[in-house]
Each structure stands twice: as C-alpha cells, then as structure tokens.
C-alpha cells in the first residue's frame, strides 16, 4: 500500500469515487488546479457535471467503488484521455467497455466485477500500453484470454476466476512477455499449472492455495 501511495504522488490528478446504491456519497479529486471534495449525498452522480474540464482532462488515476455505473461517471472516465490507472469495483459489464476506446494511454487496469464476463478484446485493441491487468471476481470464459498475448507491454496479470478451466492454459502459455502471473484465485489443476510453468519458465506464477501444500 505504501508503494502505491508513493506512486500516486507522481500523478497530476487523482479521483476517488465511492458510492452506496445509486447515491454518490464521496468524491475527491486532487489536481494541480486544486482539491475538489464532496461528502453530501445526491442522486444520479450529478456532481460529475460540475467538474471543471481542466480537471477532467488531466485525470491520471481513477478509483471507483460503485454498485451502479452511471453515464455521467463513464463519460468522466472516457474524457480522461491521459488516464494511466483505472480501478473499477462496480457492476461493470461489456456494455461499458466503450470507454476503453478513449483511453489509449492506460497503464494499469483493475476490474473487480462479477458482471464482467466479456470485453477483454476491446481492452486489448484499444489499450496497447497496459503493463498491469487485474481481473478479479470476473467470470470470463477461457476464450476471452486468447488475445492477451497481443498486449506486448503486459508484465503483470492477475486472474481471479473460479470458472477458468485447464483449457485456458493454451492461451496463457502464449504470454511470454509476463514477469508475474497470479492464478491464486483460480481452480486450475496442478497438471495444468505444471504445463504452464514449463511454457513460461521466466514468469513467476502464483498458484492456488491447496491445503496440505506449501
């Protein structure tokens, strides 16, 4: 956490968004133009419409904890051309993936959403600079990972997907650019993991914990 906090200090503009239900309860934006903070509840995320364009345009980090994703939130994110880090803990699905077409400089992406069951191909096509990708609690089918090898800058990949099968190793074994692969949130078999380790000898692979194993 300390490392991430220090890294955030290098960004020019950061937004943290937390909501409960459809009510936005906290919004903080820090930038060279000043600090924008709201703690009052309001419906429909209307406060996003009041963000200065100078702030929206320079957003580099956005972290969202949302139960619902409104068009105002998505538009704010999509208008942040220079966005480098995006963390989404929300009811985010493939219909929202259009925002990635406007985020070509994205370096780190985290998605925590049980509704995200497709859309990696949109990310691969439009965000070629991604170095870190974390997809947790995302029931993506095996074939969704087929194009990840095209992300030549990808170095760290975390998959938290209990529906992932051993067949996915065919796709993951092509990710020779990886330095770190976290599969601790999967149910891949030891045989599949052994085969993957042979294909990716230079990649540190974190295996699922199994009682009785080290």
What would your notes on this structure say?
It is built from six helices and eleven strands. The protein is an alpha/beta fold. Helix 5 links the parallel strand 9 and strand 10 (180-185). Strands 1, 2, 3, 4, 5, 6, 7, 8, 9, 10 and 11 form an eleven-stranded mixed sheet that branches. 20% of the residues lie in helices and 27% in strands.
Based on the model shown, name its key terms.
alpha/beta; globular; 214 residues; 6 helices; 11 strands; disordered N terminus
Number of DSSP strand runs: 11
Structural class call reads alpha/beta
Radius of gyration: 18 Å
Would you list the SSEs in sequence order as H and E? HEEEEHEHEEHEEHEHE
Largest sheet: 11 strands, mixed
Q: Measure the end-to-end span.
A: 26 Å
Mean pLDDT: 81
Oligomerization category of the chains in this entry: single chain
Task: Classify the beta-strand content into a percent band.
Answer: 25-35%
Helix content: 10-25%
Low-pLDDT residue intervals, each spanning 5 or more residues: 1-11, 20-26, 35-47
Shape: globular
SS summary, helix count = 6
């Amino acid at each position: 956490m300390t490392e991430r906090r220090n890294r955030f200090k290098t960004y020019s503009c950061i937004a943290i968004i937390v909501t409960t239900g459809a009510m936005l309860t906290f919004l903080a934006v820090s930038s060279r133009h000043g600090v924008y903070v709201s703690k009052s509840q309001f419906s429909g995320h209307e406060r996003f419409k009041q963000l200065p364009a100078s702030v929206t345009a320079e957003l580099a980090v956005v972290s969202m904890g949302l139960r619902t994703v409104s068009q105002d939130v998505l538009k704010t994110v999509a208008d942040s051309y220079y966005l480098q880090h995006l963390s989404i803990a929300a009811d985010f699905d493939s219909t929202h993936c259009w925002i990635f077409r406007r985020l070509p400089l994205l370096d780190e992406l985290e998605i925590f959403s049980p509704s995200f069951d497709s859309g990696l191909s949109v990310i691969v096509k439009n965000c070629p600079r991604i170095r870190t990708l974390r997809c947790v609690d995302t029931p993506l089918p095996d074939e969704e990972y087929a194009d990840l090898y095209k992300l030549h800058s990808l170095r760290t990949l975390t998959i938290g997907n209990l529906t992932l099968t051993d067949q996915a190793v065919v796709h993951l074994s092509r990710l020779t650019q990886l330095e770190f692969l976290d599969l601790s949130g999967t149910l891949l078999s030891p045989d599949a993991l052994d085969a993957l380790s042979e294909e990716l000898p230079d990649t540190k692979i974190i295996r699922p914990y199994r009682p009785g194993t080290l």
